[in-house]
Amino acid sequence: MKKIIITLAMVLSLSASFAFTGERAVNNRALSAFRTEFAGATNVDWTVGNDYYKVTFNMGEQKLFAFYSGSGEFMAVTRYISSFNLPINLHKSLKKTYSNYWISDLFEIANGDGTSYYVTLETADTKIVLKSTDGHWSVYQKVQKA
Predict the structure, then answer these.
(1) Distance between CA 109 and CA 65 in Å, rounded?
(2) pLDDT tens, position by position, 36-77
(3) d(C-alpha 25, C-alpha 19), whole Å
(4) How many CB atoms lie within 10 A of CB 118?
(5) Residues forming beta bridges with residue 56, ordered by sequence position
(6) In the chain, what are the domain boundaries?
(7) CA 74 from chain center: how many Å?
(8) What is the pTM of this model?
(9) Could you tell me which residues are beta bridge partners of residue 42?
(10) Which residue in 39, 33, 36, 38 sits closest to 53, CA to CA?
(11) 3-state SS class at 97
């Protein structure tokens, strides 16, 4: 009986320690900054990278992704958006210059330098990633599909 109690106690203590390892692995500075900046966030999920932390969470109806450096400093926050959420000049430019492409990915990134947009456009043969710079699109990456 004594062995069963000791074994059960060990299993419970190991399970409890594994249940909290995800948050403990995150830098306290990053945790504190996140809790201050995004108070009220729900469905919070941390991912630990090589030299960064990514936190996926909801603010109201929106899903956001925040990134912190290995030392816990805020780097950026991103979110997926619709083309209708782009600034008018960027939306208009996409429609005019890339009318034969479809949008497969579009997100906004905000950091200390301001707000930028990245859009992935595709045709049957080509995939292009554009980045907004000073209110204009520039080619970030271009790939020919096989």
Answers:
(1) 9
(2) 999 999 999 999 988 899 999 999 999 999 999 989 999 999
(3) 12
(4) 17
(5) 45, 65
(6) 2-144
(7) 12
(8) 0.75
(9) 58
(10) 33
(11) helix
Residue 30 contacts residue 44 (beta carbons within 8 Å)? no
State the pLDDT at residue 16.
37
For residue 24, what are its two tokens? 């403990």
Q: Tokens standing for 137? A: 């699109």
Please, is 113 exposed, middle or buried when counting C-beta atoms within 10 Å of its C-beta (0-12, 13-18, 19+)? Answer: exposed
**Cα separations (Å) of 103 from 92, 123, 134, 139?**
14, 9, 21, 14
Q: Which two tokens stand for residue 16?
A: 């409890």
Q: What is the pLDDT of residues 81-94, one digit of tens each?
A: 999 999 999 999 99
Return the pLDDT at 133: 82
Q: Note the CATH number of domain 2-144.
A: 3.10.450.360
Which residue in 40, 44, 38, 41 sits closest to 56, CA to CA? Answer: 44
Burial class of residue 138, CB neighbours in 10 A (0-12, 13-18, 19+) = exposed
